[in-house]
Amino acid sequence: MEKLTILYHGSSNKLIGEKLNPSQGDDSDERPENKQFGVYATDRKDLAIVMAILGCKDVIGGSIDEYQQGKLNTRIYGDYPKQEFIYVYHLPIETFKQTQIDKHQFVSLVAVKPIKMEKLKVKDYTHLIRKATKKETDYWIKKYGK
Q: Which of the residues 25, 52, 123, 144 could staple to 10 if both were Cys, CB 3.0 to 4.6 A apart?
């Protein structure tokens, strides 16, 4: 396995300022490790892109399940976002630690200055996420609300 030198952080928002600041994951009730205030990142660019898309304002919600043969298994509840662009930040790995719950998730407890920012068109990456069925969406809304 090659040594990691950078990680990726996906966001629906363009960075204001120089650094990504620690925050708490919004799925921290189901994944206690995400209760840490930190900058969350991944070694998978496709996962960072999906996280950015699922973070868009008009997205009801999304799920990222176990990887299937190395591929992402993701769903979006409701429609794809109307937002035109998302952002992927390339981050230095030095302050990050790999989490226990997901070998592709890393967290830094301190603010991180990106090495590079990519501005990507949402429509070019919707193929990474399948639309949930009505049954899946109804279940998700019942469990989490809109």
A: 52
